[in-house]
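Today's session is about reading a structure prediction critically. Students often jump straight to the picture, but the first step is always the sequence itself: look for stretches that repeat, for charged clusters, for runs of hydrophobic residues. Only then move on to the predicted structure, which in these notes is written as discrete structure tokens rather than atom positions. Here is the chain we will use throughout the hour.
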Amino acid sequence: MSMFHLIFSLWVLLSASCWCMCLCSTSWLPHNFLRQTNKQFVQKTDHFWEFQEETNSWVQVQLPYDLFSCVNNNCTKVGLIDRKTITGERKYDSHKSLKKKDGDGGGPEENSDIVLSQRKRISLTKMSETSIWVTGESGSIYERFWNGVQWVIAPHDLPISAGRAISIFIVNQTILALSEVGSLYQMQLSESSQPVWVDFTPILSQSMHQEADQSPAIQIKSGVVSHDGVRVYFCTKNGLLLELNEVEPQRWVNHGQPPGAYVAGITDAASIKTEVVYIISSTGDLYEYERSSKPPWRKHIWKDETAQDNSLMPLLGYGSRGLNGDHSISLFLLTKGGNLVERQLNKRKWKWITHGRPKDHHLTSITRVVQDELIENFFSLFFTTSTGSVFEYRIPKHSGTVQENHLERWLNHMHPPHAKVARGLAGQQFQVSRILFPLDDGRVAELHTSGLGGENSGPIHPVNHRRKASIKYVWSILDAPETEGWNAEYCTEERGPTNCIIGSKDEPNGQSNRRSVTRRRRGNPAQEDYLSPGAPGIRMKESLEEYSFPDNWINKHYRLRVMHRGKSFFLIADGGLTFEYLYTESVWLWLRHDYSTAIKGIRNYSETI
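Below is the predicted structure for this chain, in token form.
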């Protein structure tokens, strides 16, 4: 064969190979990917991480950061990642300093002014000291139940046709669930003694039909159980105030709406005075509703109409009696500017009091707590902030004393390590000095006094002795189902401490009854490296109302899930194709799992996708 024919044959072979490789590659790449190869890299964030093999963990780097190319220990600088310029020539420095930790290569100390997104479905409801009901960001319902040995998790999801759940109401030993579309469901026992959810559509009276002619079905927006636990007040999506005062049979009362206003949220349900409800209108005004009064609606007006921050957030507030005298009334509320204000009735006169907020923080929710009567000097209120921290506000019991001047009003309890408290969601106290808070990553954390609380601690009987002002609170992170983003498990059917109901202590061969209470799979260590899905450039002083997750946020961002840590990862492409990155026989391989329709999201439960 001549040299010319040899060269020509090699050229044909290489051309065919290149054509085949391009064809195979483009079969799974986006349609216009190859047309965009001339585009330049555009930096859209200041969050960059470096993997440290020594500690087997990701560590955020400080900017500017030099990029090096190393070949045979010969390193050359090839690029630079600088800080991104934000609109208005502001530099966004997401992390001001790196905090070194014992046992690892250091972790980022997060800037206090990074605003978290607003979660839409998470809620906490207390049934008893041994039962806490939770709705997760995924729309699931589960119960944290103390079985006498340890806390276990039992699922109570709504049927698929009902959609996602957003809150739970427990009234007169009846459990109601509110779905995202505004429908109510009641938990009942089936003929086989299994709990099932049944539709609880409001039975409307004739007067309510007249009010609702323009809307064929009443859609519930939110609700609050009354202080005595026998009624539920609901706010509808079209701005009405409804009351459910009997379940069997249903008895609904339509209280309508304030003149010229719509009900946006219920801030207090009969905790100050029986059958008196305080609501926030869609324009941020406070209204008082008392059925027996004429007229029943009363607007609480600010004396200084020119005040900068007098528009209220439609959130649950805190009402109390006797804070400023035997016959005084106090209602604590939050403004849209993140400040704490009080509507106070003292000596038959109403007045507004502004308590403000911690420096450089924006308050987003109030946690209603039963006051610890054994603390002599002050009352406490707890708040969450837009950046994921918890603050305690202390109000002196006796004004004009020396202790009042030396009392630290705002106490920062910060947040658990490697996690932030969810913005705009109230916590739930289930015992004195033990408060549960939903976390931004879907889990639950407990803020409790040192040594009296946590995952391994059940209900505790309080000790009757006077407590000092210097109470030390600590954080404990509690387990949650993996549907909320972390690799926990529901209860099992096996006998032993992890059994959902019995909780028997089966210890073989007379071994000690002290046993690990973890429900994680063997070999799966607790996850600590959590990446918060923050939005670069969103500052506390900017608008908070517009910064919330869209309805399709989970489908867009929860497309990568771990099946077996370090062995298998599942990924969904924009077109709905499912890929698996599998580690087998010391090699990482890509596998494609075809299905007849496009896949939107994936979850793993009990080793099943």
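Discussion point for the tutorial: The chain has a mean pLDDT of 76.
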